Amino acid sequence: MADHNEILEKFPFLCLCRAGEEEIIGIIQNYTQTLASIYVLNVLNCKEDKAEFLECGEEWWWGSNRQLPINLVIGPKFKKFSYCLRTYNVKDFEIVHGEAVSLQNIITKRIKRRQIQLVQKL
Predict the structure, then answer these.
(1) What is the pTM of this model?
(2) Cα–Cα distance between 12 and 22 in angstroms, integer?
(3) 53-83, pLDDT tens digit by residue?
(4) C-alpha angle 44/4/43, rounded to 5°?
(5) What is the CA angle 1-64-56, rounded to 5?
(6) 118: phi then psi, degrees, rounded to nearest 5
(7) How far apart are CA 31 and CA 82, in angstroms?
């Protein structure tokens, strides 16, 4: 766990998650009420891929508002990492450290804003 803390401090965009007994470090793509999708760092093939993955993570973390998933912000350059995307059932998945991106929250916020605007216009 001490090793995990050092990595998580150095790269704030990484999340430490637990799926059953397995500990996972990666970048959460989307977290809904039923499913969690995460790009798993340990699944990457080589050191060059890991370095590029971490560079893309930093670009996403510091260059966006962090409400959109990394694959949408970075675009085609990030498509090569699709092989390390894993999806888990939320019942068996726990975020121990880090933030979760959820497209569901963006949709909910927009709907609430529209409702408030309609009430104000009346």
Answers:
(1) 0.78
(2) 21
(3) 999 999 888 888 778 888 888 888 889 999 9
(4) 15
(5) 55
(6) -65, -40
(7) 17
Contacts of 116 (CB under 8 A, 6+ apart): none
- Owning domain of residue 112: 2-121
Distance CA 79, CA 73 (A): 11
**pLDDT tens sequence across 7-59:** 878 888 898 999 888 899 999 988 888 899 999 998 888 899 899 999 999 98
Record the tokens describing residue 81, joined without a space. 């990492």
Contacts of 70 (CB under 8 A, 6+ apart): 13, 27, 29, 39, 56, 57, 60, 78, 101
Structural domains counted in the chain = 1
Q: Are strands 22-31 and 15-19 parallel, antiparallel or unpaired?
A: antiparallel
Q: What are phi and psi of 21, to 5 degrees?
A: -95, -5
- In 3D space, the residue among 51, 57, 22 whose CA is nearest the CA of residue 39 turns out to be 57
Contact 67, 28 (CB under 8 A): no
